[in-house]
Design a protein that fits this description.
6-stranded antiparallel sheet, single chain, 18% helix, Tumour Suppressor Smad4, alpha/beta, 18 strands, 27% strand, 5-stranded mixed sheet, 276 residues, 5 helices, Rossmann fold
Length: 276
């Protein structure tokens, strides 16, 4: 499933090893896959793979991927369905791709960017870099269930940062997006979000510890077993963020429609704690 204003990269993987990410910024393709080192995605260790076995073409919006067999000697299959020599086939997320006796996997890697607290100059940097990535855009809006990376120049305690931490989304600097857009080859990995220059500077507030934005899976269970009732008041969007965050962290959450004595007593009897 794709976010309305975002896309994904296509990964070609051999088990846990990523052999290539498509598309390559600045290149329309098609991208060759084969045993020879000159292929865009090189697959070694199996002589049943032709030197240039097949080619892959990413759609203009980044959402489709099609292959063309290049007359390979031992053939190509998609999900165990044989592709005719010189024939084409569409690939979807999770498809198995057989080159001769070698079986690879095709996967989506979400790349849906949300930015928060950027200066005008940094916003322009991120938007320009995103424009070089096929089908990918950067937005100030958090796409719940879709956003893959939060872009910040400096760590600030905002609802978007809390959502990123709860979702386990990497928090990266504008330079990280620039480096992604500067990739020159399919086999080139994405930059490490924690590398120098790729990570936002730490907050200056004493109550926000350094490195707090690091991805930590244990946050998903921070409130596991807790029953929390969010009291009425404030903006509806803020309450929605609160409910989403607490749910992501494992709590059973309800919104208290009223704050009268009877309603509060009912929630207390059911074992709920209250959140303002």
């Amino acid at each position: 499933r794709f976010a309305p204003e975002g896309s994904s990269m296509w990964l070609i993987a051999d088990g846990s090893q990523t052999l290539g990410r498509l598309p390559v910024p600045g290149s329309e393709g098609p991208y060759t896959v084969g045993r020879h080192e000159s292929a865009d995605v090189t697959v070694t260790g199996d002589k049943s793979i032709s030197r240039k076995h097949l080619e892959l073409r990413v759609g203009e919006d980044g959402r489709t991927l099609r292959l063309t067999d290049l007359g390979s000697k031992f053939g190509t299959s998609v999900d165990n369905s044989k592709v005719d020599p010189g024939g084409t086939a569409s690939l979807v997320d999770g498809a198995s791709l057989s080159l001769g006796a070698k079986v690879l996997t095709v996967r989506h890697e979400p790349l849906v960017l949300c930015y928060s607290g950027l200066s005008k100059a940094d916003t322009e940097v991120v938007q320009a870099a995103a424009a070089r990535l096929v089908g990918v855009s950067a937005s100030k809006e958090w796409a719940d269930g879709h956003t893959s990376h939060l872009v910040m120049s400096k760590i600030k305690l905002t609802p978007k940062l809390m959502l990123a931490l709860a979702h386990g989304c990497p928090v990266v600097a504008p330079a990280w997006v620039e480096r992604v857009a500067a990739r020159k080859a399919a086999a080139e990995p994405l930059p490490d979000p924690s590398a120098v220059g790729c990570s936002p500077t730490d907050a200056t507030q004493p109550d926000i510890p350094a490195g707090c934005h690091a991805v930590r899976p244990e946050r998903r269970s921070l409130f596991r077993g807790r029953k929390l009732a969010v009291l009425p008041g404030g903006e509806a969007s803020s309450r929605g963020h609160t409910v989403s965050l607490l749910s992501l962290m494992g709590a059973e959450v309800v919104e208290a429609d009223q704050a009268d004595a009877a309603s509060l007593s009912s929630h207390v009897s059911a074992g709920f704690e209250f959140v303002m």
